[in-house]
Structures are given as C-alpha cells and as structure tokens.
Specification:
The protein is built from 12 helices and 13 strands. The chain has about 325 residues and is α/β, with parallel strands linked by helices. Helix 3 (about 75-90) packs parallel to helix 5 (about 110-125), helix 8 crosses helix 12 (about 300-310) and helix 9 (about 250-260) runs antiparallel to helix 10.
C-alpha cells in the first residue's frame, strides 16, 4: 500500500493508522522538495514535484492500493496518479476526497476545489472497467485540526488534504484568544470528523473492499452546530467567549469577487460558506447513511473531544494554517 503526500496533518493521521494494521506494508510517496520525515520502517519514494509519470509508475509497481492525501488543488496530479495506478495494476484507489459532500451541486459551484474533487471521482468511475476500484471518503471538516478482494496475507500499499477545524480557527473558533465568529444563526447542522477517526476509517475501508468499492463512504464523529460547539468550549474552558456574528451570504459575495480576480486566498472563506450556508449538504447524515457502524468506528462525544483539545499542551496545538 502506498500513501501519497503523507506529510500533512491528514496524511500523518492516515499513516499512523495504517502502520498499526499488521496486514499492511506501507510505503510513502513524497515530493523531493518535501521536508517531512517519516518512520524508518516505511519505504519512501521521493519523486519530482511535478509527479512525472515514469516516476509514479515505478513507485506504484507491486502496490495493492493507493491512498491519496495530496493537496486539494492538484487535480491533474491525481489524474496522473490514477493513470499510473491502472498501468501498474493497482487494485484500489482512495482519492483525496476527505471533505464535505461533493455531490452537492451548490457547493461545487461555489468552490472550484470541490468541483475538481468531483471530477476526480468521475474519472475514477471510468477506470472501473480497467480493474481499478475506488472509495470516496466523505468526512466533513476535520474537527480537531480545524470488486477485487485483497489476499488474506499482507497488503502492499503506497500512501499519497483541506478544511481543517477547531485548532486553526477555520470553523470560526480561536482557542488561544477565546473568540468565536458565529455565521448566520449558528444553528446550521454540520457533520464533522476527527483526524484519528478518519485514519481508522481509511484502514477499515481497505480491509472491507467488497463492501466499500466504487462508492462514497460517509463518516462523522458527530453532527453539531456552531452554537453547540461554542457551549462546549465555554463549559470546558470555564470562560465566557467573545462572539462576533457574520452572514454567510456576505462571506460568499466577498469570496466570489476576490476569486474572480484570481485571489485564491478567497477559497477558505468560500469553504466556510459551504459548511454553514443553507442547503450546502453539510449535514449529509440527513440524506446519506453513515458508514460508522459498518466500519466499526469509535463513538465520539463533542464535549469530550473539545475537553481533550483544550487540555493539550500549547506546543502540541497546531495553531498555524500550514498543511
């Protein structure tokens, strides 16, 4: 099995979960320019930053599955990986979906990155007849960071990320300053998943190929709202937080204007608008069946996760917006 671009916070969480599963022999695809370091027992394939096809093909030979946690803005790179996966005889591909419901047209129209993810899934559908199966893992925002069966022996994999949650302030909350931005009424329901649970889900997907192939898998640590998150934060911190209010409609308008001028820094604002805006599919459990039980994922509590985050030492809190 190979994990592609395992240096981001999602990639490291997935890598940690894969390394705990004895059936997997995990290797890593990394860019030559990357400064990331990995466990010594994981073989690392360092390729040029442009992901040349010949280098990808060499890295993919002998792999059973590929898990992509590559940057969200690299649609062509993922297509190249898919092409080389087919050529190398890889059986299964998990693309860098790991976000909200990209089947929601309103969200795709608002955020180009979501449209790109949707196109990657459509491209994977075209490869099914060539022997490559796929699974799209839908997670919602990362809360705590802001049908070919495999052989019963060890599985070889290559491990190849976006909306981060509470630690970065992307969801509207700043842990260091105890401030919150509440969008609209603050009552919009959203599904959100923690990074360890995402890693566990990837492992479970790969262990159940006949049940997870060629479909979306929807997972969620909990369904909540901004007002519920704020209440949990205030309870856990023992302090009243400073709150400001903003409308997602205004956020959308500003974001679209900036994006039309080529300003890609507008994307985070547009992503927030897709999470909290009306009819964006953020509470996908209302329309789709969650796979938590099928995958055997742990039950989680908003209050307990918030308490754990607030109790982390400052040096362990990821307070930057870097991948």
């Amino acid at each position: 099995m190979k994990t592609a671009q395992a240096g981001g916070y999602l990639g490291l969480s997935v890598l940690e979960a894969l390394n705990k599963e004895s059936q997997f022999t995990v290797s890593i695809l990394s860019r030559k320019s990357s400064k990331s370091t990995y466990p010594s027992h994981n073989k690392v394939y360092a390729v040029s930053d442009t992901y040349p096809e010949e280098e990808l093909l060499e890295a993919f030979k002998g792999q059973d599955a590929i898990v992509s946690t590559i940057n969200a803005f690299t649609k062509q790179a993922q297509r190249d990986m898919i092409d080389m996966a087919v050529k190398a005889g890889v059986k299964h591909f998990i693309p860098s979906e790991f976000v909200g419901n990209t089947l929601n047209l309103k969200s795709r129209e608002l955020v180009p990155m979501l449209a790109d993810k949707y196109e990657v899934i459509q491209y994977l559908r075209e490869q099914e007849s060539k022997g490559l199966s796929w699974t799209g893992v839908v997670t919602g925002p990362f809360f705590d960071w802001s049908s070919v069966p495999y052989p019963p022996t060890q599985i070889n994999l290559v491990l190849f990320y976006f909306l981060r949650g509470l630690q970065t302030g992307v969801l509207g909350f700043s842990i260091p300053t105890h401030t919150a931005t509440i969008y609209d009424s603050g009552n919009t329901r959203i599904d959100t998943t923690t990074l360890p649970t995402i890693g566990t889900a990837v492992v479970k997907v790969l262990l159940q190929p006949s049940r997870t192939a060629n479909r979306f898998i929807y997972i969620s640590s909990f369904t909540t709202s901004q007002n519920e998150i704020l209440a949990a934060l205030e309870t856990a911190s023992g302090a009243k937080w400073e709150v400001r209010h903003e409308m997602t409609e205004a956020l959308t308008t500003r974001g679209r204007e900036r994006l039309e001028k080529g300003d890609m820094s507008a994307v985070p604002d547009l992503m927030v608008a897709t999470v909290y805006g009306k009819d964006r599919g953020s509470a996908y459990n209302e329309e789709e069946e969650l796979a938590n039980e099928m995958l055997g994922l742990p039950k989680e509590s908003l209050e307990e996760v918030v308490k754990e985050l607030l109790n982390l030492p400052k040096e362990k809190l990821n307070l930057s917006k870097e991948n």
